[in-house]
TrEMBL record:
SUPFAM superfamilies in the record: NAD kinase/diacylglycerol kinase-like
Superkingdom of origin: Bacteria
Species in which this protein is naturally found: Leadbettera azotonutricia (strain ATCC BAA-888 / DSM 13862 / ZAS-9)
InterPro entries, per database record: ATP-NAD_kinase_N, Diacylglycerol_kinase_cat_dom, NAD/diacylglycerol_kinase_sf, YegS/DAGK_C
Pfam families, A to Z: DAGK_cat, YegS_C
Protein name: Diacylglycerol kinase domain protein
């Protein structure tokens, strides 16, 4: 089967143009080297994103022009937002898989293979030869996500700090501590917003009624998110399930105190405040707008249904890597 390679690059992930040029040069050098070494020809195309989600259109059009029985590997070169767009671009396409080359502020999904392996995902030689492993995804409405879908406080924080992120975009991409500082300040602000932390949700999870007032809901396909956090530590991207964690509505100060244990995956120590379920499908609605965040893409909605799609996409895993299990369900 003929093989093609489509590279989607988010230029905003490279504050220094020199670094972007190095990445492009490495791609070109690899395929030039294949030709010089008399290896089978494999065509490639590089697309540099011009506006949000334009990669979805590019991927679809590129696939339409390929001959039948052609395998396509799409490379996401950027952060989680770029991977989100590439995933939504390839869904439903035949003979297509996804390689993630992390160069963004947050590179959450590849951390599921272990933080010590991130450099391997940036290696063009390893990525082009890597075998794709079946991976679950989250289907929510018209969108698909690799890592998580959060509703409530966390999503409200992400939406609230968007103006700061835009204003200080260049500097925050160079210094991760600035992103963390923004999130902390945003969390303090939202924790005292009663409309958010006391919002009532009608929830049906695999037939179980979990309706009630919650500060936040986290529906996870993997444990890693938020640059270096591991909140739903029991989640694994290839087990055919989603792990859902709910934080009950409690006082603002108690919420802030629970953020530390929550972000470290220590929710099992506080059963009074947290509800954990392993699910296939959950439907959520509320009389007030839902603050939603899917893999870093934030938006509002009135109701949402999240469902796992087992083994829906093949993710390139360099050097035969596999997803790490960080905790058993009972831990």
């Amino acid at each position: 089967m003929a093989k093609k390679h489509l590279f989607i690059i988010n230029p905003k992930s490279f504050p220094k143009k020199r670094k972007l040029q190095q990445v492009i040069a490495a791609i070109d050098a690899y395929f030039t080297g294949r030709k010089a070494g008399n290896l089978p020809r494999e065509d490639f195309f590089i697309h540099i994103e011009e506006f949000p989600r334009d990669s979805i259109i590019v991927i679809r059009k590129y696939m339409q022009n390929l001959e039948k029985e052609t395998a396509l590997r799409v490379y996401s070169i950027g952060g989680d937002g770029t991977s989100f767009c590439c995933l939504n671009g390839i869904m439903g396409l035949p003979n297509t898989d996804l390689a993630i080359m992390p160069h963004g502020t947050g590179n959450d999904f590849v951390r599921n293979f272990g933080e010590e392996h991130i450099a391997e995902f940036r290696d063009i030689t390893l990525q082009t030869g890597a075998k794709g492993i079946p991976t679950d995804i989250i289907h929510c409405g018209d969108n698909y996500a690799l890592s998580y879908c959060t509703i409530g406080m966390e999503s409200a924080v992400i939406i609230g700090i968007q103006p700061w992120n835009k204003q200080f975009e260049k500097i925050r991409r160079r210094f991760n501590w600035i992103n963390s500082a923004f999130i902390i300040l945003g969390a303090i602000q939202v924790a005292f917003n009663k409309a958010v932390i006391n919002q009532y949700y009608t929830i049906n999870a695999d037939g179980e009624d979990l309706s009630g007032s919650y500060a936040l809901l986290n529906i996870a396909n993997g444990p890693c998110y938020g640059i270096d956090k591991n909140a739903v530590i029991t989640a694994v991207p290839d087990d055919g399930f989603l792990d859902m964690l709910l934080l009950k509505s409690i006082s603002p100060l108690r919420i802030l105190l629970m953020m530390g244990p929550y972000l470290k995956g220590e929710f099992a120590k506080y059963p009074k405040y947290f509800i954990w379920r392993r699910i296939k499908k959950v439907s959520i609605n509320s009389e007030s707008p839902l603050f939603v965040n899917m893999d870093g893409e934030a938006f509002f909605d009135s109701e949402l249904t999240c469902e796992v799609v087992p083994g829906a996409v093949n993710i390139a895993a360099p050097n035969g890597l596999s997803y790490q299990r960080r905790a058993a369900p009972h831990e």
